[in-house]
Specification:
Elements lengths: L1 E8 L2 E7 L10 H9 L9 E6 L6 E7 L4 E2 L3 H13 L7 E6 L2 E9 L5 E7 L21 E8 L2 E9 L3 E6 L11 H6 L9 E9 L2 E8 L3 E2 L4 H13 L9 E5 L2 E7 L5 E6 L1 E8 L7
Parallel strand pairs: 2-3, 4-6, 11-12, 13-15
Antiparallel strand pairs: 1-2, 1-18, 3-4, 4-5, 6-7, 7-8, 8-17, 9-10, 10-11, 12-13, 13-14, 15-16, 16-17
């Protein structure tokens, strides 16, 4: 059995396990993620996040998608980890560093008068644009990958490709309600040009400081929100001349709003909520009677 906390950031929900207290076998982690994510026989979530000691930051975060694959970064998960670390006294300071496979990020918690964290700001670092950093193949242009054509089912679509420690392909649409989320999303995710697969975002630009957003996440499918995806979408908006660098952009996700700024130092800042849903004990399948 394993003690867990279920949390969400804008409906992007994960099962969190405190690995300062619990020791899990490495070989079991992918299967555990699949088990707990199952809505029928598990707890139900978009994946599993482990929090533990780090040699290079205040704590480490590991993210496993609902299909068992390990992700490099997760913006909504980062906000929840920061809230958990502060609320459960793993970290006493309001500004903390979190190690991910995509790099080290800085998070700042904003407690209310009662001391509970409801809002978190995360420095997501600098976006990456080189094809080998994302990774994506078949790109001829140097620098930011903007207006890149990708062929799916004999049709060409234009995308902007960005890494926020994990890969994102952003497609601009006229109406978010008509975005081909369920059709184009899974095909781009597994497209041969993305050797590590990719998160797929659809964006409707409302104005320079506002956009609508939907996401097909690699390894999880449709989710209510994707923090790194929202960051990548704002970067893509700036690269396409639709938003201004240094100005905050309100991103409307299915689960709620995030506020993203790509600053003049090239760092991307994300501000948004994090909430605890419940706590409990999960009994592994071989432990049930």
């Amino acid at each position: 059995m394993v003690k867990f906390t279920k949390m969400h950031g804008l409906g992007n929900q994960y099962i969190f396990i405190n690995c300062f207290d619990v020791k899990l076998e490495e070989k079991e982690l992918s299967l555990l993620a699949v088990e707990v994510s199952d809505i029928y026989t598990g707890i139900g979530s978009d994946g599993l996040i482990l929090m533990g000691p780090s040699d290079v930051a205040d704590l480490q975060m590991r993210i496993f998608n609902k299909d068992g694959s390990e992700a490099k970064n997760c913006g909504n998960g980062l906000r929840c980890v920061a809230k958990y670390a502060y609320d459960y006294n793993l970290i006493s300071k309001k500004v903390m560093t979190i190690e991910t496979l995509g790099g080290i990020v800085q998070a700042t918690v904003h407690p209310d008068d009662a001391g509970s964290v409801l809002l978190v700001t995360v420095d997501m670092g600098k976006p990456r644009f080189q094809a080998e950093q994302i990774p994506v193949t078949g790109v001829s242009q140097e620098g930011p990958i903007v207006g890149e054509k990708i062929e799916v089912d004999s049709e060409n679509h234009e995308m902007t490709v960005v890494s926020m420690g994990n890969p994102h392909a952003i497609f601009f649409v006229d109406d978010i309600e008509d975005a081909p989320l369920m059709t184009l999303g899974p095909k781009v995710e597994k497209h041969e040009r993305f050797p590590e697969s990719v998160n797929v975002e659809f964006v409707q630009q409302v104005s320079g400081d506002e956009l609508h957003f939907r996401v097909w996440e690699r390894g999880s499918g449709v989710t209510q929100a994707c923090g790194t995806g929202a960051c990548a979408a704002v970067v893509a908006s700036v690269l396409n001349g639709l938003s201004n660098k240094g100005e905050e952009v309100q991103v409307h996700l299915a689960g709620g709003d995030l506020y993203i700024t790509w600053d003049e130092r090239d760092h991307v800042w994300m501000k948004g909520p994090a909430e605890t849903i419940c706590e409990g004990t999960y009994y592994r399948k071989n432990q049930r009677k």
